[in-house]
Amino acid sequence: MQIVRHALLSPAPGTQRELVSLHYGQAGGQKAYVQASLHGDELPGMLVAHHLRQQLDALEAAGRISGEIVLVPMANPIGLSQFLLHAHLGRFELMSGENFNRHYPDHVDAVAASVEPQLGADAAANVAILRRALKAAVLATPVDTELQSLRRTLMGLSCDADIVLDLHCDAQAVMHLYAETPCWPDCEPLARFLGARLTLLAQDSGDSPFDEACSRVWWKWGRHFGGRFPIPQACLSATVELRGATDVTHELAAADAGNIVDFLRWRGLISGDRPALPGAVGDARPLAGSMPIQAPLPGALVFLKEIGSEVQAGDVLAHVIDPVTAQVTELKSPVDGLLFARDFLRFANAGMRVAKVAGREALRSGKLLGA
């Protein structure tokens, strides 16, 4: 295993953060990229990366890594260090207010124009040409801030991978995934290995999150060239929501790391007997059918339904109780679906999104992700 340290742009004299990446195997075959805690206060992925590192160390010592695997065990040194009044604030950069998992640059048109004369009828050759050009474009991206340099570093490590797994978590949630719709054929086995109850699919959900920045180039290039050259969906990229923020246990993390290794074995990046494909415990639904449950009034928040519950339209999911007037406001599900996530805070501000129900029909449009 090779350890590489990537210096980020210094935000002030005497201050410099770095990103550390761990590199297993050799380039030339399939490549998998796994990163943890892009939102610096989401820690289940960091513990999964710890266990994954141990398993990959053993596999490499046994000569069983057939492809290239890059592991970033802590993807956000900026967010990891942000505390205010003892509260960890790892989702947004305090300097800009930007979400660390948004606003990744798009090089689709520039790369397409630069490589078009080189493309032909060989799909594999086209993929190799596009990957080289994309990586060069990413690494040449000018940056003015520490946050931009972090984004460029992460994209430089991941943009040429066949598999990209971005490990996150929700507040309280079941295991679930986010992926782009064109990735679903390759993502479905991943969902099985991870035991995901739900995969939420969209094609361009808005604001350019990390996972979509890795996968969208392929379907966009296919659309750009209009079938003149074979361009496969050459990257499976998924956001893996490792349940809730407090689900940080060795038992869960070791099992999740083992499931990721089994998926990589199934894909051929790790040698040995190919594992059997597990049965599905969930399904795929449109991200546009994931309905946020909002509190219209402030008050104490009391949930009546547990995460993982199948609910019907009109079911009362929670109460919001005004402590002064004693008014009780019912929060009802707008659709039949799976209550897959809810907040861990128990006081709701007016307009606060407190839970999410995944329905089966696309009902929303525009930007589909939360802040």
Automatic annotation (TrEMBL):
- Among the Pfam families in the record, one is AstE_AspA_cat
Cofactor(s) essential for the protein:
Zn(2+)
Q: Succinylglutamate desuccinylase/Aspartoacylase catalytic domain location, by residue?
A: 29-110
Question: Which positions are tagged coiled coil?
Answer: none
Q: Which UniProt keywords apply?
A: Hydrolase, Metal-binding, Zinc
Under the GO molecular function aspect, what terms does this record hold?
Answer: hydrolase activity, acting on ester bonds; metal ion binding
Q: Output the CDD domains linked to this UniProt entry.
A: M14_PaAOTO_like
The protein's matches in InterPro entries, at most eight in alphabetical order, are given as:
AstE_AspA_cat, N-alpha-Ac-DABA_deacetylase
Q: Which PANTHER family match?
A: BLL3975 PROTEIN
Protein name, UniProt field: Succinylglutamate desuccinylase/aspartoacylase family protein
Source species of the chain:
Pelomonas aquatica
The taxonomy runs: Bacteria, Pseudomonadati, Pseudomonadota, Betaproteobacteria, Burkholderiales
